[in-house]
């Protein structure tokens, strides 16, 4: 199996499990919406930046942000750096999902460490962080 697929399969499982936990806690978001929502900076993010980070078209990002705004997870505010531009910011409702997501992530890490062992889990984390240095354009 190629390395890309080996990385994708556990990532997909993490995304699915976290989203299921968030939805079970009463936060109604789709995977596509969550991928955009996760990329909103605390100070706000322009739609074009969100589209690029989520690797979707500006139109798709706009559609997803519209849905998130209607559901109360984000709001659009004027960009203080450019009065003509708008920023997307998360709301308190969206922030309420963060502890739920973090709890599920912690459960997953415990499960993986039990399966891999403490040393291998630490090595996996270190290797992935090192790979992030050369693969994450938003780092």
TrEMBL record:
<dbReference type="GO" id="GO:0003700">
    <property type="term" value="F:DNA-binding transcription factor activity"/>
</dbReference>
<dbReference type="GO" id="GO:0006950">
    <property type="term" value="P:response to stress"/>
</dbReference>
<dbReference type="InterPro" id="IPR039422">
    <property type="entry name" value="MarR/SlyA-like"/>
</dbReference>
<protein>
    <submittedName>
        <fullName>DNA-binding transcriptional regulator, MarR family</fullName>
    </submittedName>
</protein>
<keyword id="KW-0805">Transcription regulation</keyword>
<keyword id="KW-0238">DNA-binding</keyword>
<keyword id="KW-0804">Transcription</keyword>
<feature type="domain" description="HTH marR-type">
    <location>
        <begin position="1"/>
        <end position="133"/>
    </location>
</feature>
<dbReference type="InterPro" id="IPR036390">
    <property type="entry name" value="WH_DNA-bd_sf"/>
</dbReference>
<dbReference type="Pfam" id="PF12802">
    <property type="entry name" value="MarR_2"/>
</dbReference>
<dbReference type="InterPro" id="IPR036388">
    <property type="entry name" value="WH-like_DNA-bd_sf"/>
</dbReference>
<dbReference type="InterPro" id="IPR000835">
    <property type="entry name" value="HTH_MarR-typ"/>
</dbReference>
<dbReference type="GO" id="GO:0003677">
    <property type="term" value="F:DNA binding"/>
</dbReference>
<dbReference type="InterPro" id="IPR023187">
    <property type="entry name" value="Tscrpt_reg_MarR-type_CS"/>
</dbReference>
């Amino acid at each position: 199996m190629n390395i890309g697929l080996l990385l994708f399969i556990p990532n997909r499982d993490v995304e699915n499990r976290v989203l299921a936990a968030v939805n079970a806690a009463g936060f109604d978001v789709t995977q596509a919406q969550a991928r955009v929502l996760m990329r909103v900076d605390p100070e706000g993010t322009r739609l074009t930046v969100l589209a690029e980070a989520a690797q979707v078209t500006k139109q798709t990002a706009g559609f997803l942000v519209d849905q998130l705004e209607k559901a109360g997870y984000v709001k659009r505010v004027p960009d203080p750096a450019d009065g003509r531009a708008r920023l997307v910011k998360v709301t308190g409702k969206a922030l309420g999902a963060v502890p739920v997501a973090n709890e599920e992530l912690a459960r997953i890490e415990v499960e993986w460490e039990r399966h891999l062992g403490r040393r291998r889990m630490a090595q996996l984390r270190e290797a992935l962080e090192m790979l992030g240095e050369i693969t994450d354009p938003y780092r």
